[in-house]
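Appendix B. One record, verbatim.
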Amino acid sequence: MLEPSLFSQLDLDGLLARERATSSFGARGAAAWDRRAARRNPRERDSSYSAALLERLDLKGISTALDIGCGTGNLAIPLALRLQHVVALDFSSEMLRHLRNNATAAAVSPEHLAVHQLAWADDWEAHLQPADLALCSRAMDFGDLRRCLRKMHRFARQRCVLVLHAGGSYLGPDVLRLLGRTVHPRADYIYAVAMLHQMGIRCGVSFLASTGGMVYDDVGEFVESVHWRIGDLAPEEVAKLHALFARLPRLPDGRVAYSHPFCWAILEWSIADTDLEAYARFAAFDGPPPPEPARDLTAPPTLPAPYPPFSPESSLP
């Protein structure tokens, strides 16, 4: 019998928890995305990302798909026009309201597109059946990454496609330079690749460059979009953003456009290629997440103790 490798025993969950605890980019709940849905909807239609990803998807032999974190339907609707049946999930009721309106406008039949308001932590088994393709585009929950990866794997009959950010920041490089502040990176795709490897899932990785951004009615909306990503801004930072906004190109309708490059990692794997012995070692993550211990929310956050410096000699028997 082949013993587990040293890499398979690394505490990736603990390392990810440390990364998230120090990141300048916090997680957003359903209520926050509800408030952002109206602005997100037209942005999705104008983004170069969706069309580029749809061109990359291998749909050979695929008749059903599960779109996890579907947003306003930028992927679910085109897929519903090509496949026998698509199930779209999101935890934001406002995102799903826009999706239904967009599906009606695109003449998508309800028999080809089902919509469910579900979060990663909800009981999917009570509502869903596995699909040929499980797709999660920019909507993975890094707060319980391993459990979510296994859930996605369980709800795919043939293949999984997971798209994650490649890089530590959602801010454009010009905004980062302008603010001049130290920004702690967010966790990116490499954690998912490493965890999948630990679980005996051999994923392929490719990269997709796209241009993203938004159109703003006024400088207040622009400042708010930066605040959304990194939190409170100092008065001098707000002044710098006002000056940048004044230099941005103005559209014929008077609005101002801002865009910047993104790089996305596309992780793809086949259910049939899973190493079942390695996968079984993490079976505890198939159940519901353990309850969080009570916390004193008035106390400052404490970080786990740092890992000791790595020494090759110390790892040898």
